[in-house]
Description:
Blueprint: H1 3-13, H2 15-23, H3 29-45, H4 61-64, H5 78-88, E1 94-99, E2 102-103, E3 127-131, H6 132-138, H7 140-147, H8 157-165, E4 169-174, E5 184-190, E6 197-199, E7 202-207, E8 212-221, E9 228-230, E10 233-238, E11 243-251, E12 257-266, E13 271-278, E14 283-292, E15 298-307, E16 312-321, E17 327-336, E18 341-350, E19 358-367, E20 373-382, E21 388-396, H9 400-407, H10 413-429, H11 435-450
Parallel strand pairs: 1-5, 4-7, 5-8, 6-9, 7-10, 8-11, 9-12, 10-12, 11-13, 12-14, 13-15, 14-16, 15-17, 16-18, 17-19, 18-20, 19-21
Antiparallel strand pairs: 1-2, 3-4
Helix pairs in contact: 3-8, 9-10, 10-11
Amino acid sequence: MTANTEKNSMFMEQLDALMGPLKKEKPPDWIAQLREEGLARFRTLGIPTVKDEEWKYTNLSALAGHRYALSAKSALSPAQRKDVLARYCGKADVNIVFVNGALDKELSNFGKIPPPRGEESLPAAGIEISMLRGALLKDAAALKEIWAHYDPQKDPAFVALNKALTQEGIYIHIKDKIIANQLIHILHVTQADGEAIAMFPHTVIRLGKSSEASVLETHVGLNDENIYLADPLTDVLLEENATLHYSKAQKESLKAYHVGTTRVWQTRDSTFNGFSLAAGASITRNNLDIVINGEGAAAFLNGLYSVYKDQHVDNHTSVDHRAPNATSNQLYKGVLNDAARAVFNGKIFVRSIAQQTNSYQLNKNLLLGKECRVDTKPQLEIFADDVKCTHGATIGQFNEDEIFYLQARGVPRKIATRLLTQGFVDDVLNRLTRDSVREQVAQLVAPSLAVLEG
């Protein structure tokens, strides 16, 4: 038996122990069935290896080589709690805070939506935010409708694992014709000294007809020495003419593993403005799957990854055009230093019915270390003849003429490199229309850019 096979076997042996706390619960039959289906599916698939085409460039043997506990109690000190509030929780935002996988009621305020002028907080009409555990009972029909779009027999391994082991999650429902002005911030904080823990949060977002909302999903680790696994799943349904501004920002511990999936189902004339940041974790895998199932819908996917040392980040995007007259636009940029490695795989499917599709994809990478490596693979599969689809990828270093220009004006080389890198990054950050989100993302990416100054 090879070392990798042994590690995978060790992880698979943990499943019964991880399921232990869940077996004590008595959920409705349909929820129990979902968990069993997820567990069976994951047992069949196992942890992906480099022999799997979708994981060809990402080796998860290190992830599989640990024993995990399902969750751990919050270990935040008073000073850390104060710091989390100050750094991540905007006073005008709706904050939903999880610590070590469990909801922290003291740091959260989603029961009441902060009003804009400092009046006493009042419940917001048309905006429903509840724990997923309760929503599974209260809003079962709505959740079943969302998940009916996906065949559980085709779930990827880590989606199936999330469905089997998720304990905590959140359900956000914006009703028809409601404009949610406040940012809804879902913050996952991990501080797990000692044993490695595993977290499987599940977020479900539903926007009604002609509604609009902004959601930020943040994952942060407070100690870069902590080893843990984060396997989040986010499901989004956009009804007719709905608009969602969704950002996911990840700055996990540098020894953590983050394997996340976001699935978006779009109907007629809906708009998804998406942004992704990956700046932490030892190994990151972000899966973003968009299904455009309505005429006139638009999806905008912007991403930034900034990694150093021996970090590994893998972005897989998929945009499935199933309706005519729709648009998708992707721009992913990466900054790599030291011996970091990045993977980008962007797929665009255009079905035969999806005439007059306009789809664009670009991946640009800036390599600042001699041992960096990027594997980029844009893919187009087009079965319609009246479309406009383009894709491209670039990998390179700085133009020495630009460095020399700044040095000639008294700027030290390291600072010149940092300035030019910041300009490369800002091209993506400036696509974030909400100032508070842009500031939050800039704060999370700053440590990986600071290493450029030595």
